[in-house]
Amino acid sequence: MQLENKIEAPDLYDLQNGFWIRRAEDIDIPKATDDIHRAFDVWRDAGLSLSPMFQTESQTRRHLLPNGFVIEKFDKEIVGTFSLKTAIVSRLGEKAVLFREADDEPVEFLNHSGRAVTDGGYLVLKKAAVLSEYANQKLGKKMMTFCDQLTVNYVRIALETVAEAVWLYEWYQRLGFETVGSYRYPKSQLETLLMLKQS
Questions:
Q1: Which H, E and C letters describe 85-139, residue by residue?
Q2: How many other CB atoms are there within 10 angstroms of residue 191's CB atom?
Q3: Most buried residue, 52, 71, 79, 128, by CB count within 10 Å?
Q4: 12-198, CATH topology level
């Protein structure tokens, strides 16, 4: 499968509650960077140190352009952000899963659970962040619905998270994601989990 540089998605997606999703633009970068920092404060308060907490505007730009999206209120205030990439996921025997995002080196995740993995192309949800004051608007769930609708040519959706982010990990499970592997990136104190939502 060919990994895509630009994900096909609608220019505007109405969330039906005074919010919508649209493609990120360069003008959004400062606000999106600030929102990412604010959204990840919950992890800082829990004693975790995650890279989005320290993300620069330059890193946000690379992350959001061309496959990044913002969640906006009716008054054009940005309240959330996320991006999508493509990846190839394939099982390596019984104990490992190979995860290769577009333009990145492949990562071999250990598969402790023995869960079945459907080989193929996945959309990868990256650095999703919604401001905590909008948590009761179900924007995260609606963002996932948007992503699900883009998976016509993919097995489904993949993401990485950390087990220490317990409530987020459990939320992903409730949405149908399963942990299929773990990996500790160099210089990281936390174990990264690969979660897949397979069709």
A1: EEEEEEEECCCEEEEEECCCCCEEEECCCCCCCCCEEEEEEEEEEECHHHHHHCH
A2: 13
A3: 71
A4: Aminopeptidase (3.40.630)
Torsion of CA 45, 178, 52, 35, to 10 degrees: -80
In this predicted model, what pLDDT tens digit does every residue of 2-14 receive, in sequence order?
Answer: 555 678 888 899 9
Q: Count Cα neighbours of 6 within 13 Å in the Cβ-side half-sphere.
A: 8
**111 closest CA partner among 195, 174, 187:** 195
Higher per-residue confidence, 153 vs 73: 73
Each residue of 148-196: pLDDT tens digit? 999 988 999 999 998 888 888 999 999 999 999 999 998 888 899 999 9
End-to-end CA distance of the chain: 17
Q: Are strands 107-110 and 156-162 parallel, antiparallel or unpaired?
A: unpaired
What is the length of the chain? 199
Distance CA 129, CA 132 (A): 9
In the chain, the amino acid numbered 10 is: P
Domain boundaries, the chain: 12-198
CB 178 within 8 A of CB 144: no
